Amino acid sequence: MANLEMLNDMGQAIASSLENEVHDYKVTYGELTVTARADKIVSILTTLRGEANFKFVQLIDLCGVDYPERAKRFDVVYHLLSLKHNIRVRIKIQADDELPVPSVVDVYPVANWYEREVWDMYGVMFDGHPDLRRLLTDYGFQGHPQRKDFPLTGYVELRYSEEERRVVYEPVKLQQEFRDFDFMSPWEGAKYILPGDEKAEDKAQES
């Protein structure tokens, strides 16, 4: 595992080599994170994969993060591994649901399904992707379920119709009201008995 000095040296080397593409870098919690320009992500990853000083030959993961309060509400995050230097790096770029992010499938072919998953879950489009379609949800699914403003129930539900002998989509109909959950921390000491606590009290009286 890389130590902090190695991670700082690698971050500085990346920032120096890609000064026009990289905004900054930081090392926190023993991990190196680099923030970069979205429009330059292909050249960034090509450099990090190919140059001897880096050799990040493996794309471990590609995922999305939603910050709905921002103008560019999404982060697209690339996790890379250099076997040569035994170092991992996280590359973060910002995106929205209108301007596509360049696809990196030509750099890392494994990104194909990763980018499809980000599109499916968050709605981030990838320009140049060879087959950008839903991966985890159904073809008729509406919306992107990992967005923080996506309703917990979804918009539609599907069932098999015996009358029509096919799968049909219908607006969500809640069979019961949402339960009321009490999220008060037990350490704060509720002024009433929380559900389930009465059993512990009964046992204490018996003993």
Secondary-structure map with pairings?
Elements: H1 4-17, E1 22-28, E2 31-36, H2 41-50, E3 58-66, E4 74-82, E5 87-95, E6 101-102, H3 111-122, E7 126-127, E8 156-161, E9 166-171, H4 197-206
Parallel strand pairs: 2-5, 6-7
Antiparallel strand pairs: 1-2, 3-4, 4-5, 8-9
The total of helices stands at 4
Radius of gyration: 24 Å
Topology order in helix (H) and strand (E) letters: HEEHEEEEHEEEH
Helix content: 10-25%
Tell me the structural class.
Answer: alpha/beta
* First-to-last CA distance: 52 Å
The major sheet is characterized as: 5 strands, mixed
Number of E-state strands: 9
Reported CATH architecture of the domain at 4-137: 2-Layer Sandwich
CATH fold description of the domain at 4-137? Beta Polymerase, domain 2
What is the molecular shape?
flat
| The CATH superfamily title of the domain at 4-137 | NADH:ubiquinone oxidoreductase Nqo5 subunit
Describe the structure.
The protein has 207 residues and is of the alpha/beta class. The chain has a domain at 4-137: NADH:ubiquinone oxidoreductase Nqo5 subunit (Beta Polymerase, domain 2, 2-Layer Sandwich), CATH 3.30.460.80. It contains four helices and nine strands; from the N terminus they run αββαββββαβββα. The strands form three sheets. The protein has a five-stranded mixed β-sheet. It has a two-stranded parallel sheet with strand order 6-7. A hairpin with a 4-residue loop joins strand 8 and strand 9. The longest helix has 14 residues, at 4-17. It is flat, with a radius of gyration of 24 Å. The termini are far apart. The relative contact order is 0.10. The mean pLDDT is 88.
